[in-house]
Amino acid sequence: MAELMPGQKRLTPGAVISDIALVGWFVFALFPLLWMLLLAMKTPAEQTTTYFAFSPTLENFVTVLTQRGTDLTSVDFKSALLTSVINCGGAVIVSLLIGIPAAYAAGRWKFKGSEDLMFNMLSFRFAPELMVIVPLFVIYNEVGLFDTKAGMIWVLQLVTMPLVVWILRSYFQDLPEDLEQAALLDGYTRRRAFVMVALPLVRPGIAAAALLAFIFAWNNYVFPLILADTNASTVTVAITKFLGGGGQAYYNLTAAAALIGALPPLVLALSIQRYLVRGLSFGAVKS
Amino acid sequence: MATLDVRGVRKTYGRTTALHGLDFEVGSGEFFVILGPSGAGKTTTLKSVAGLVDIDAGQVSIGGRDMTGVEPYHRNVGMAFESYALYPQKTVSQNLASPLSSGRTGSYSEAQQKERIDAVTTTLGINHLLDRFPRELSNGQRQRTALGRVLVRPADIYLLDEPLSHLDAKLRASMRAELKTLGSMSDTTTLYVTHDYQEALALGDRIAVLRDGQLVQVDTPEEIWKRPADTFVARALGQPEMNLVDAIVDDGRVRFASGLAEFPAPPSLDLTTGQRVRLGLRPRELMVGSENVGHDWLDIPGKVLLSERLGRHVELDVEAGSDQLIAVSGSDHAPREGDAVTLQIHLPNVHIFDAADAADTDTARIGSATGDRPATREQETR
User: Fold this and answer.
1) CA-to-CA distance for B313 and B51, rounded, in angstroms?
2) Pair B366, B277: CB distance under 8 Å
3) If you measure CA to CA, which chain B residue comes closest to A284?
4) Do A188 and B85 lie within an 8 Å CB cutoff?
5) How far apart, in whole angstroms, are the C-alpha atoms of residue B375 and residue B382?
6) Is B193 helix (H, G, I), strand (E, B) or coil?
7) What is the pLDDT of residue B182?
8) Segment A97-136, tens digit of pLDDT
9) Are strands B189-194 and B157-161 parallel, antiparallel or unpaired?
10) Of A81, A93, A114, B8, whose CB neighbour count within 10 A is largest?
C-alpha cells in the first residue's frame, strides 16, 4: 500500500460510513436553521409553502424592526430587543460582582455549610422555573417589582448566579494556592492578592461564565412572560407574539424576529472569543 | 535579622497529623536546615512560620514577638516556594519588583528597585531574562527567579523550600557554594528545607532532622554525622546508605550474629550479656584489605558478590556470612566479583544501635564501639 501523506486518512469502509453518518447528522442539525432563514425571506403568501424556490425578500426584517401599532402586529420588537440587552446585561453584571467573590471564597476555603450553600445554589438550576413562578408573581405584584427591569434583573439571578459561581469556583480551585500565598508574603493583603494575582488568571473563566450566563438569561422565556408586561418584556416573548395569539400567524415575521434575536449573543461570543482560551496560568508552578 | 522560636507547634489535616509538636530555636543570622524525606512535614513547618497555615497548637515567635494571629504580610518573612509560585502574568523583573512595591518591606524609588533587582539577578545569573515571562523559562531559571524574589527584599527571616532541587547537578553544586556567600543570606536568619543530605551538611550551621512530623535530632552537621541519634538519622546521611548488622553482646564482647567478627564491648555503654544490638557501618568507612593492624580495627571476611564501577570509586556488594555489606573502594586494585576480601573499619567509626524487631524499625544509638558518649534523641518516636 502506498505511503500515506501526513493528515491523509486511510479509506476504510468504517471511515466512509462514519463520514456519511456525520454529514447526515450535520444536515439534520442545521436544517431547522436553514428553514428558518428561508422562511424569514418569504412573503406572507408563500410562508406556508414548502418550496425552496421563491422570490426572496428582506421585507420581513424591516417590518419586524420598524412596524408598530399597525394592523399587522402590535409588537414593539425594537424596544423588546433593547430591554433584553438591559435585563440580561444587568443580570450578568450583578452576577459577576457578587458571584466572583463568592466563587473565590467557596473555592479557597471550606467553612461550615459551604458545600450545602453551593448545592443549594445549584438547585436553582434544576428546579423548573414554573415551580416558583406563581409565588414570585404574587410577591412581585405586592412589592411593585412586576414589569420593572430591576425586577427582571433580580429574578434572572436565579439563572445566571449559579452558573457564574459554579464555573468560576472550579477555575479558582485549579489555581495553585501558592500564588496568592507568595503575594501575601510579598506584603500584600488578602484582598490585594486576590485582585493582583488570582483575578487576572481566571479571566478566561470569567469570560466563559459571563457568556454562558448571558445566553441562558437571553433565552429565558417564562420569567418575562409572567413577570413582565409592556415595560420589561423581552425578545423571547416578543418573538412569539408574531404568531398572532388567535389572529393570523405570521410565521415569516416570527422567523425573521428569531434570527435577529439570536444575533446579540452571537456578537458577544465573537467579541470575547479571545479571552476564551485556557492555559493562561501555564508556567506559574512546576508541573 | 531576628531570632526564631518555635514551641510545641502542632498541625493536623483532618485525621492525619502533619506536625507533632515541634520545638526548635534558630539564632539570629543562623542558617538552619531542616532535613527530611518527602511527607515529613518540612513545607508545613515553613508555612507555619510564615503564617500561611493555621497551627492547631503551639507558638511561633519571630524576634521575640509572638506571631499568633499575625497575618503573613505583617511577619516580614520572605519565602521561596518549592513550586516557585511565580506570577505567570508578570515578567521576571515584575515578579522581583512585587515584594518591593507592596510598601510593607520598606519604600523604594523606581531607581532603588531597579538597583536591587539588578544586583540580585546578576548574582543569580538571570539578569538576561528580566523581560521574559515564567512560561518562557526553564525550571532552573524559574527556581532562581523564585529565589531572587526572596533575596531582593530585606526580611527578618528567609524561608527556603528546596530552592536547589530542580537545578541540574553542576549548577546545583555551584549554587550551593554561592548561596552561603550571598551577602543578604549571611545576614539573615534562614530556615532552609531540603531532602538532600549533602546540601544540609554543606550549608547548615545546624541541622534538624525531621521524620513524620517529629524532630529526631537537632545538631551541628559534624555532630549529626559523627553521632546520629538513631538509625533513621544515620541512614539519612551518606550515600550509599549505612550498613546495619545484627550483633549480640556475649561475655564482654560484641559479636556479629554471623559470628564472623567481634570486638570488646566498651565498658562505658553498660551493655549486658545477651543483649541484642545493631551495628552501623558506613560504606565509605569500610576499607578493602588488611594492611591496618591494631586492636582498634575490626576485620570482616567476606566475598564480593557485585562490583559496580562509578568513576573514581567502585561500589562493592560483599557477602559476609548472613550479612550483605556495601563498601566503597578506590578503583585501582579493586577486587573482582567472586574474590574473597577482608573489610576493615576503624572501631571509633562503628556505631552501636538498639536492636530492632523488624529491619525497617528505627532504633536509638547507644554509642560507638569505643564508648563514645551517646547522642540524645529529640523525642521518642511514637
Assistant:
1) 46
2) yes
3) B88
4) no
5) 19
6) strand
7) 75
8) 999 999 999 999 888 888 898 898 888 878 888 888 999 9
9) parallel
10) A81
A197 chain-B contacts, CB cut-off 8 A:
87
Q: Is it true that the peptide bond before B240 is cis, omega within 30 degrees of 0?
A: yes
Q: Which grid coordinates belong to A90? A: 444587568
Do the Cβ atoms of B89 and A189 come within 8 Å?
Answer: no
The single residue listed with the C-alpha cell 550549608 is B203
Q: Which amino acid is at B280?
A: G
**ipTM of the shown complex:** 0.86
pLDDT at residue A284 greater than cutoff 50:
no
Across the interface, do A280 and B89 touch by the CB < 8 Å criterion?
A: yes
The answer to whether B239 touches B248, Cβ cutoff 8 Å, is no
The domain A71-280 is classified under which CATH number: 3.40.50.720, 1.10.3720.10, 2.60.34.10, 3.40.50.620?
A: 1.10.3720.10
Q: Measured between beta carbons, which residues in chain B are less than 8 angstroms from residue A282?
A: 88, 135
The pTM (predicted TM-score) of the whole model is: 0.84
B-chain residues within 8 Å CB-CB of A189?
Answer: 71, 73
Count of other CB atoms within 10 angstroms of residue B249: 18
Render pLDDT for B319-350 as a digit per residue (tens, 0 to 9). 998 899 999 988 777 888 899 999 999 999 99
Cβ distance B337 to B190 under 8 Å?
A: no
B98 and chain A in contact, CB less than 8 A? yes
